[in-house]
Design brief:
Layout: E1 7-15, E2 18-24, E3 36-43, E4 52-54, E5 66-68, E6 73-76, E7 80-86, H1 89-102
Antiparallel strand pairs: 1-2, 1-7, 2-3, 3-5, 3-6, 4-5
Length: 109
Amino acid sequence: MNPQPGEIWLADLGLAAKTRPVVVASRFDPDPPRALIIYVPLTTQNRQSQYEVALPKLPFLDHDSVANVQGLGSLPGVRLERRLGKLSVEVMVKIKRALAYALDLGIEA
């Protein structure tokens, strides 16, 4: 398994024995110092804030979803259970801009 940026995976986040969809936000690194994946969780609760990116209708998700960059986290790659699909470059640019905003990186959103 070699998760790529922009892929959506079902991940075990340790929440009540449920898996949740997450977007891989980590850069591709063939030899990372740790076996961790940085992710942005998906949710169906859209609060229409600058911390969320609405996703287009995706055939592998049952509901309209948003990427919640305030939920940014990391987990060991072994907790990624199944690849669901991949987001477009355009959607990933929006997620990166939202991350830059959330982390106050000084990059125009």
